[in-house]
Amino acid sequence: MSRWKRRFGSREAPWWESGVNFICVPDCGRCCDEPGGIVYLSREDAERIANHLKVSLKQWLAENCRTSFDGRFVLESKPEDGRCIYLTGEKTCSIYEVKPAQCSAFPFWRENLVSGRSWEKTKALCPGIDHADAIEIHGDSIKLNLEADRIAEKGFRFI
Ligand code: SF4
Ligand code: SF4
After folding, report:
1. Structural domain span for residue 134
2. What is the pTM for the complete model shown?
3. Is residue 134 assigned to a domain?
4. What is the pLDDT of residues 101-156, one digit of tens each?
5. Ligand 2 contacts CB of residue 86 (under 6 A)
6. How are beta strands 65-67 and 73-75 bridged, if at all?
7. Mutate to test the pocket of ligand 1, among 25, 122, 129 (most ligand atoms within 8 A of CB)
């Protein structure tokens, strides 16, 4: 069994290996517009964003992050509505060029891909899945996104 299949918990090729249809719809922003959403950060995410904003890693973490129940750094939310601090009033991302890997990997998260049924459910949130303009996303690309999401979710706790 391949390392990948062990990790995904199946001896069979995953249902999505032959590809799925998806396009990120311009000006959508629905996946960011979730009160209480949690974005875990890899160390690389945090360093890249701090560098982009021209502040030290320590300062960026102190001012823009909080910690999860087990001490992993996550993006802070706006106190007034629980949405991501980087979501603008136009539903765009103010750090789009350097956004966290978990954001880039959506909708290709493990919990969304674990079965065809969970993928169907994800469609309720993400209009890009099976959109009329969608293109086929190959299994290899999906694997890369899943791996990026896994690493980000592992997170980091100390600087
Ligand atoms: S919900 Fe889907 S289509 Fe909309 S911004 Fe997020 S990934 Fe793109
Ligand atoms: S960092 Fe950007 S892409 Fe990620 S949740 Fe916030 S607004 Fe959305």
Report:
1. 18-154
2. 0.90
3. yes
4. 999 999 999 999 999 999 999 999 999 999 999 999 999 999 999 999 999 999 99
5. yes
6. antiparallel
7. 25
